[in-house]
Design brief:
The chain has six helices and seven strands; from the N terminus they run βαβαβααβαβββα. The chain is α/β, with parallel strands linked by helices.
Length: 205
């Protein structure tokens, strides 16, 4: 068995969801069992309507307890002023019992992002999320510069050493590009190799 990885996302205009689908493809291509979850929404339907948010993708909503099930979790994070949105923070802030019992210790963690602009905080969001992983004893797996598209300066390309990403524009009009989606799939592939190698070694007794 190559292990199980959950992709846990918050997505308002589906940019993060589109990246998540590619990350999932990369994971599954390497034999890892995966499932995409979304976090509970904290905004009211009235506010979402005023924000012209489309309907949520047809995904199950993750509970705190379900975070203990997989061997690894990759979080898809749209940034809010250089850090994670309240919806995702609410989930992680509710993991006190898991911290107290060490329930997430030794699990792998990854991150990917969406910002409105090129300099909207993809890296700072990663750095402010890593503190949760550290307190839980999770093993953070950065992406590095593992895809040549990250070296392409001929166009705007989201992503960094901390994970794949996309740039949405302030109104959400820019969609993930083919190059960004390619990076996302590679991140899934690389994360899968780390998790599957660990699981295989763990099962050799």
């Amino acid at each position: 068995m190559a292990g199980t990885v959950y992709i846990v996302i918050y997505t308002l205009y589906h940019h993060i969801y589109k990246l998540a689908v590619e990350v999932q493809k990369g994971l599954e291509a390497n034999g890892v069992k995966t499932k995409i979850y979304q976090v509970p929404e904290t905004l009211t339907e009235e506010i979402l309507e005023k924000m012209h948010a489309p309907p949520k993708p047809d995904l199950p909503t993750i509970s705190v307890e379900e975070l203990t099930e997989p061997d690894g979790i990759i979080f898809g994070i749209p940034t809010r002023f250089g850090t994670m949105p309240a919806q995702l923070k609410a989930l992680l802030d509710a993991t006190g019992k898991l911290w107290a019992t060490g329930a997430l210790s030794g699990k792998f963690a990854g991150t990917f992002f969406c910002t409105a602009s090129q300099h909207g905080g993809q890296e700072t969001t990663a750095l402010t999320t890593v503190t949760y992983f550290a307190h839980h004893g999770m093993i953070y797996v950065p992406f590095g510069f593992a895809h040549t598209n990250l070296f392409d300066n001929t166009e705007v390309i989201g992503g960094s050493a901390y994970g794949c990403g996309t740039v949405a524009n302030g109104d959400g009009s820019r969609q993930p590009t083919e190059k960004e989606l390619q990076i996302a799939k590679t991140q899934g592939e690389n994360f899968a190799k780390v998790v599957s190698t660990y699981v295989a070694g763990k099962n050799v007794q």
